[in-house]
């Protein structure tokens, strides 16, 4: 079961997701130990594999550091649900094969600590705690192709070989 | 067939006669910018997949800058990975220690940016180069790896927003105050996924360096790129500067091109601005926050670390002493040398400033001037997020070099106009 960690705030930025003082490494496991540290210093103690992060508008704004995606992925977060995402973060996530969900409704309906289940193909989030279901627009086909290939580079590597 | 300058650049780069906003295109990349934080992981990703190649060693420009020179063992290892790779692939334009500088000041200065081209870089402020009528945008390490290996990348053509800068700037007001005013109006996601195109008489009067301050901060409004059309200022800046290919294609927006939004600004009413913590959109007139005590002043970065910025700061600091620790960080070695030759270092020394080698350093809380909990810094940089320059309990205030210099003199936020 996935627990939702809800941060209703807008503009959660890449400096909060992975502060630059940790950018002297690109080791995902190490980055993961500082995931969201300047937003919530207790996040890494609370998060369990498969949990989800829920936030407001413009999640991931700021730097182009893909380290932000790696820190979240390294912390075994299954997805981030936000009202909207900053452009470079959104693109980096797709390129890494990491699914993001844009949904204003989910941000309104899911409370911190709720248990949620996500059907990515159908575009449905079920909040098991309050019994509500929320539909979302699945990612567009070109993004799904990249994710299905395991990320942009795996897709390119396969194309180069063929 | 009307198109904006951004659309025309994408049409050319992707082999289409016309492109429209929202369209996915596969575009040729003309220049790839690489630095020490985001490129080493890109190199590793390629190596892990057995793709050890670069699409063109003359179209990749490398400069370590974030932790430059390396601040610790780990960052030294990042530099070493970058260095090994750049040498192995015979990267033609590799700016090593002594010639390395803050990437977004360095690439235009060294003649790597041509109008009409597509430039990507592993850094969000790559949008700076749009001041030279080019499309440029920041990308992450995966996109960087793809660009390095193939010279191509997918893009969704952005809708364009037009920002008309009317009037003339008053004395003591600079392009930094203009962009802080723009972002204060539209917010940090006010241009999300879009192109910010700047036009107007106030812009026409600005130097190329001043224009780069504006396009540098397009990302702070969430934009994909910032762009300014070609004119005599662009032409003069490029004269004798370009490395490699000397010719370029000038493209301009059609008069009847479509814009998602048109925003007008009367620049003659803009005041010196300060963006309060913790968003770049927190801009207010300096009069509304003057007197707030500061602990540090920082003059540098890809936003405002160029020679004109240092001259403005020196004019205010001349014959005075700073009341707080003040760092001056020329953005490139050429700027450093020029500041030295012009006697600006004497002014900074006499005023009690620290003069650093070129580095991104403390702008991102890396090193060379990070903040303790509870400290406040007035800075010419572009971001004031929580923890940006050090402790998550510190605060960053953004302003022009003039406002930062005046604040350094008083030890508190100050209006620069009384020192002019």
Lateral strand order in the biggest sheet of chain B = 4-3-2-5-6
Q: How helical, in percent, are the residues of chain B?
A: 25-40%
The domain count of chain A comes to 1
Low-pLDDT runs of 5+ residues of chain B are none
Q: Give the strand order of the largest sheet of chain A, numbering strands 1, 2, ... along the chain.
A: 4-3-2-1-5-6-7
Radius of gyration of chain B: 20 Å
Please name the CATH topology of the largest domain in chain B: Aconitase, domain 3
What is the number of beta strands of chain B? 18
The CATH class designation of chain A is: Alpha Beta
Helix fraction of chain A, binned, reads: 25-40%
What Rg of chain A, in angstroms, do the CA atoms define? Answer: 15 Å
What does this structure look like?
The complex is a heterodimer of chains A (162) and B (420). Chain A is α/β, with parallel strands linked by helices and 162 residues long. Chain A has a single domain (2-161), classed as Aconitase, domain 4. Chain A has eight helices and seven strands; from the N terminus they run βαααβαβαβαβββαα. A seven-stranded mixed sheet of chain A has the order 4-3-2-1-5-6-7. In chain A, strand 3 (79-82), helix 5 (87-95) and strand 4 form a beta-alpha-beta unit. The longest helix of chain A has 10 residues, at 152-161. The mean pLDDT of chain A is 96. Chain B has 420 residues and is an alpha/beta fold. Chain B folds into two domains: 5-265, 2-Layer Sandwich (Aconitase, domain 3); 271-415, Aconitase, domain 3 (2-Layer Sandwich). Chain B is 30% helix and 18% strand. Chain B has a five-stranded parallel sheet, covered by helices on one side. In chain B, strands 16-15-14-17-18 form a five-stranded parallel sheet. Chain B has a four-stranded parallel sheet with strand order 10-9-8-11. Classes of the chains: A alpha/beta (162), B alpha/beta (420).
